[in-house]
Amino acid sequence: MKLFVYASQLPPGASSIEILFTRLAPFGTVPFNLSMMLYASDAFTAVQVNVYADWNDDTPTGQRNTVSFVNTTADTYEVFFNVTGGQTNVDVRFSDATGYRSWAINVDDSGAQIDGGDQITYDATTVVSGDTPLTTADRIIIVNATGTTFAVGIPNLVSTDGTYRIYVKNHGDAGTKFNATTGGFAGTVELSRDSDNDLASDETFHVGKVSGDVHANLKNGADDLIDIFADRACTATQLSSETENPTDGATPDYTQYFEADATNPTTTDYHIKASMISGGTYSAVG
Description:
Layout (H helix, E strand, L loop, with lengths): L20 E4 L23 E7 L6 E3 L5 E3 L4 E7 L6 E7 L5 E8 L10 E2 L5 E5 L8 E5 L5 E5 L10 E5 L8 E6 L5 E7 L8 E2 L1 E7 L11 E6 L24 E7 L10 E6 L5 E4 L1
Parallel strand pairs: 1-8, 9-15
Antiparallel strand pairs: 1-5, 2-3, 2-6, 4-5, 6-7, 7-11, 9-12, 10-11, 10-13, 13-14, 16-18, 17-19, 19-20
C-alpha cells in the first residue's frame, strides 16, 4: 500500500508525516446480528463498530476509525484506528443491523498506554436487552460494584416502546448492576437492579413506570412513600429501588419506576404500596 500526501497538506514547516495505527481485534465472538459485509464498492450495511476518544453521552468526539471489518462466518470483528499520544483508553460504539446502539466505555490495553501496533481484545459476547418507558435522552447503564461504568445503552431508537440492546463483554466483576437513568448519563437514577449472572450470559432488564396523583395526606414530605411490589401483600418482592415522595404541585404527584417481569412485562400484575408515616404508620396496598 502507498499513501500519497501533497506537500500543501502538510503542517507548516513539516517535510514528512507519520501515521500510527493500532487495532481492536477480539479473539472471541460477537452476536450474529452485529455482522457486516464490506463490499469492494465500499457499500455496506448500517452495522458498524466505531472507536472514539470520548463517547460524550452519545455525542462522540475524536473518531479514530473510518471502517470496521466484521466476519459474518466467525462473528468476529477488526477495527484499525488512529492512536494519539498519551491515550490510555477508547470508547467503542456498537450499532447493529436492527438499529440499536450501545457503547463500551473505557476500553483499554490492560491499563497501559495505547501505542501504535498494540492489539486490544474486547469480546462483546453478552447482550443485555429489554423494554422501557424511556426515551433516547435517557440511558441504561451497566456498572460494577464500585460504580465504574462498563457499558451504556440508548433506548427507544428502534420503536416507541423504549426497547434497547447493550453489547458488552463478560467483565467477571461480582456485583454488576443495571441502572435506568432519566436525563442522560449524568441524570437521575430511577431504578437499579443487580445483574443475575454478572454478564456471564445474555440478560433481560425490563423497566416499568407508574405515575399519578394522591390525597393531600400522602404528600407531606419524606415520610410519605410510593413503592411497587410483585406480591399483593407488598411485603415479599419489592420491584422499585428508589425513594419516591409524592410532591404537592408536581404534575403528576408521583412517578415511580420498577422492574417489570422478565417473561411477561406487560401482562403481569404489579402492586402499589402507599405509606403515610406522619402521626403514626399507615400503609395502603393494592
